[in-house]
């Protein structure tokens, strides 16, 4: 085990633990605010640090305590979520390492960096990798998680409960993390581009922009809900709409000419490749 002899792990008290975010960016804010909005944790038990007054507002607006530095967060909290940029994650963990005892459950939201490296930097293996997305803020995130060597069953349940409160959680082998992050994480950006493009098309066809964007957004939301709730393959749902000689098949023909599906597949593969590169 990284960090020397094995020691007894102190269970996290699910009714009284403090949750800290190291890194106060948009992803951290979406998860933290989602937890408050869903009533999972009171803001009095959530902490982060940021010196920029404007960046603190997302947290302070819902009552979350914002300290001046990360050391205060690490000292105060039992569960510590690292949500800094992957490029500086190692530096941040090493700086806080003296405060990161094995009685603290550590969580990384960074893409790329694997558990082996995270555990080495922290000096112990009580680590969980979580790959969520910004839809956490509305309780609709797609989250993937991987448990470290010393993370207990209780630890896994706690993190699954936290992130399950702001979306859906899938536990899987870490070897699938790059692909899962590309679909579940970067995929929200890909979907947003598709919604924007459809709305622009509606404007080009004569719709007012606000109405077109609302229709496009609802179309994507409804399509996703039908896949999830009916269990039908997307191709089946598409075929139900695409009647012979109709408007839908005419539009699909244009998408195929533009290699829409191939472009989306290539985007996911490129994102997964970049995630893998960042972990090297």
UniProtKB/TrEMBL annotation:
Enzyme class: oxidoreductase
Pfam families membership: F420_oxidored, P5CR_dimer
Keyword Transcription regulation applies: no
UniProt KW Heme keyword: no
Reactions performed catalytically: L-proline + NAD(+) = (S)-1-pyrroline-5-carboxylate + NADH + 2 H(+); L-proline + NADP(+) = (S)-1-pyrroline-5-carboxylate + NADPH + 2 H(+)
GO MF annotation terms: pyrroline-5-carboxylate reductase activity
Biological processes, Gene Ontology terms: L-proline biosynthetic process
Alphabetic keyword roster: Amino-acid biosynthesis, Cytoplasm, NADP, Oxidoreductase, Proline biosynthesis
Chain ranges of the Pyrroline-5-carboxylate reductase dimerisation domain: 174-278
HAMAP family named in the record: P5C_reductase (MF_01925)
Similarity remark: Belongs to the pyrroline-5-carboxylate reductase family.
Name of the molecule in the record: Pyrroline-5-carboxylate reductase
């Amino acid at each position: 085990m990284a960090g020397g002899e094995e020691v007894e792990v102190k269970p996290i008290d699910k009714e009284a633990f403090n949750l800290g975010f190291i890194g106060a960016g948009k992803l951290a804010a979406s998860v933290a605010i989602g937890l408050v909005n869903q009533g999972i944790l009171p803001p009095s038990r959530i902490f982060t640090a940021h010196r920029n007054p404007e960046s603190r507002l997302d947290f302070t607006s819902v009552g979350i305590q914002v300290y001046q530095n990360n050391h205060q967060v690490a000292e105060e909290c039992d569960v510590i979520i690292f949500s800094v940029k992957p490029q500086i994650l190692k530096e941040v963990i090493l700086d806080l390492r003296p405060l990161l005892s094995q009685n603290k459950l550590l969580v990384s939201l960074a893409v790329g960096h694997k558990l082996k490296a995270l555990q080495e930097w922290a000096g112990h293996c009580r680590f969980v990798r979580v790959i969520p997305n910004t839809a956490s803020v509305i309780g609709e995130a797609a989250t993937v998680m991987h448990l470290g060597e010393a993370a207990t069953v209780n630890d896994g349940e706690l993190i699954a409960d936290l992130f399950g409160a702001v979306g859906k959680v899938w536990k899987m082998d870490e070897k699938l993390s790059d692909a899962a992050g590309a679909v579940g994480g970067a995929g929200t950006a890909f979907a947003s581009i598709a919604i924007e493009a459809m709305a622009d098309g509606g404007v080009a066809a004569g719709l007012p922009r606000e109405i077109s964007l609302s229709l496009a957004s609802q179309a994507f939301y409804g399509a996703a809900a039908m896949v999830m709730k009916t269990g039908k393959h997307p191709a089946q749902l598409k075929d139900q709409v695409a009647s012979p000689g109709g408007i839908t098949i005419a539009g699909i023909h244009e998408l195929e000419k533009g290699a829409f599906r191939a472009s989306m597949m290539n985007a996911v593969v490129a994102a997964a490749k970049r995630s893998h590169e960042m972990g090297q």
